[in-house]
Amino acid sequence: DAKTTQPPSMDCAEGRAANLPCNHSTISGNEYVYWYRQIHSQGPQYIIHGLKNNETNEMASLIITEDRKSSTLILPHATLRDTAVYYCIVHNDYKLSFGAGTTVTVRA
Amino acid sequence: NAGVMQNPRHLVRRRGQEARLRCSPMKGHSHVYWYRQLPEEGLKFMVYLQKENIIDESGMPKERFSAEFPKEGPSILRIQQVVRGDSAAYFCASSPPRTPTEAFFGQGTRLTVV
Prior knowledge:
The complex is a heterodimer. Chain A is mainly beta. Chain A contains no helices and 9 strands. The model of chain A has no long low-confidence stretch (mean pLDDT about 95). Chain B has strands at about 5, 10-15, 20-25, 30-35, 45-50, 55, 65-70, 75-80, 90-95, 105, 110-114. Chain B is globular and about 40 Å long.
């Protein structure tokens, strides 16, 4: 079962930053926070992951709180193509447990 | 470097027939995972394989489903005597040998049982 809590949906204006929250209050010390997204009918796409430090790549930034009980995925300049379901997953092995995720709709 | 390749992308089978879904992992990846996504639901883990070995099949239905990853060739997910409830999207993922947490997914096979 998923160990994370995410809002079911959110809207974002095109060109603005999208901040996606995730609660993982039961995360253990060796578990990473991973973010994937699934654009309609496609396979999940890896976005970013982190352990305790903030991370940034060409797609997004990941901010993890100091107590590691929550995190925020930031899409700096959302485009229409970022419309997708975003999954926050905590794990330290091979088995990904997908919850319901957050359905993000980017509007023009 | 090609990504994870799955074929066919769409598969239609009549009830009682067999379905074979194929997955070629990314180059250099020796770990393969299969997930199933039922309509309007999240992805569920089915099985984890390394070359010629099933590591974890805890998510596989006990009957009619099997998976293999031979020494040569793609990984195969086989569903015998399909029923309407098997209609779903089946996704394969692969990862490198030393970082099993970093999985990359294929585009999936959409199985429709009529």
